[in-house]
Amino acid sequence: MGNTENMLDFKTVCECNRRLGTKTWHPQATIINLEELGLEPGSVKFEFYAILLIESCPNGCVCCGRKYYDFTNATMVFLTPGEIFRMSENHTLPEKGWLLAFHPDLLFRTSLKNDIKNYTFFHYNKEEALHLSQRETATITCCLENIEEELHHPIDRHTSTILSHHIEVMLDYCSRYYERQFITRENRNKALLEQLVQEVDDFLLAGKVQGGRLPAPDGFAASLNLSVAYFNDLLAFELGKPFSIYIQFRQLELAKRLLVKGEGTAAEISVRLGFPSVQYFSFLFKKWTGVAPNDYRYSRN
What angle in degrees, to the nearest 10, is found between the helix axes of 186-205 and 159-184? Predict the structure, then answer.
């Protein structure tokens, strides 16, 4: 998301507050108004979780992947500890908006400590940001206000639990809004999946899968200009399948096509498409289609 030239490296929440001119109410969590920070152009590295609510940026959030089919009221970006971020060539952070930052230690002994890994959008690229409607922005702003109110409360043994609860509620809303964004990007997603079908089929037909060792999603995600996390979530949302099952599905679809065209025996097709053995191919084929490979061929001729 950025380079190390002119990079600000915030190792603690207190240091982040001090550098960005905000009072520290809690040493492990903060909310910062991003307006008029006056930072020199460069990149920033947060050694803790950081969530940006971007209300204004110089180029209309094109740098965050906003397209004509997206809402334009606000944008959200989610950063994992140690991630490097740069808003644009001339801006380190957004011109207007809010930063919620919290250290992983804040989540110690809370349910969010383990559950935060389920919010996969923390591993999306900046260009896969979440774009909010006016109503969605109001809801997220309300969540931030609840967090800020708790930050101003004197710290006691309930503080971490209440803060983590408010953060988790906000993340749950973001999960909902990302699913909505998959829906409003239906046409774009359809084009991506059509491209994926072609690339996976070409890969399989070229005999690049050997001995049942299925490919990782990384290469296919990169060819679609997507992060692996976004790619996997897109498949799960649009097709209801993880990548490994999707590959098997394409293997079997190609096997059906090759059998009908008479392009090899079941054993030859099994090897070509990368099944670990002809026995496993026959088992899987019958499980999915209800008939053995040779019976399928004869039933279609």
Answer: 80
